Amino acid sequence: MKFTKHLISGAVALAVAGTLGMAYAQTNAPGTSTPSAQAPARGLDKSATIPSQGTTGSTGTMGTNNSGTMTQQGTSGTTGTMNSGSNATMSNDSTTGNRTTTGSANNRRMNADGTMSTELAARADRG
Amino acid sequence: MHSARLLVAVATALLIGLPLAGGSGQAVEGSATASADAVQDAAPKRGFRRADFGGSKPSVDARHVADWIADSGDNGLLDFVVVDKKFAAVYVFGSDAVLRASSPILLGSALGDTSAPDIGERPLSQVLPQERTTPAGRFMGERGRNARDEDVVWVDYDAAVSMHRVLTTNAAERRLERLATPSVEDNRISFGCINVPVAFYETSIRPMFAKTRALIYVLPDVLTPQQVFGSYKVQALVDGRLAAALP
Q: How far apart are CA B213 and CA B198, in angstroms?
């Protein structure tokens, strides 16, 4: 009789422990949400491609020539730089992952009111 | 019987796939596996598009590239310009690949299809004679201004190559006379820019780029168009000669 009691008590204890364990495991399971990074807007792009979209905040560079590429552009607040004589930087939009141009030159001329023109900045050509 | 049908289907799919390659050349290479017989069966089923030069008689290379643009849709919905360096001519097309206008042009004095490193950052006095090339390639042209505050169309902004009204500031260069002569040898005079007659710029170039950008295809001097653009020969496809069409 005592043996049966102990057996039942043990089984109950195991069941309770198992239930608690399962509940704990479920509440601490890794989340299913993933970074919803989107391809950056390419308003100044001529034919640049963006092969990979990182999530760890690495810094990328982007050429402004006809075949510029951006690599490993992070989504967590890092900035990339645009080369080829440009001072513009690309920053992250914290909500969409799209980049916004925050630099000053980027080969585009400045309007009188300080805003960025859509036209290329004047420069010397090769006659 | 089944295998023959399959071969035809594969060839048809490959031919239809050619325009989607967009000049990458990679998809085109795979199509060499189709047999000539299958291609001949499949070719007439696909509608090939060619550029409409109207009454103009372009060079073989200009015809080749314009046809490829028309057939592949490489220009998207944009108007485009074909610059034929070897024959010192420019062809202006609408997005439908119908020729709007053409004209003789002046070009960089040196033969070559690339630009020297950092040439765009150097003053003209530091550009060597052999560096005075007009680079070949596919460029997204857009309007802008040069340091003389003239409106120009930038071909390769980083390399400082633009298309503009013919310069007459240095009389010794006789640029107007060079444009007027029927020969093309004397049309190589600039440091790399493309000079067009003033009237042509005002009526054909400036309006084209006034509100939007357009593609500029500069044909090569030394390389082949296939090497520069990954283009294929549309006429060969029309004739059902797939192997001859490949880059």
A: 20
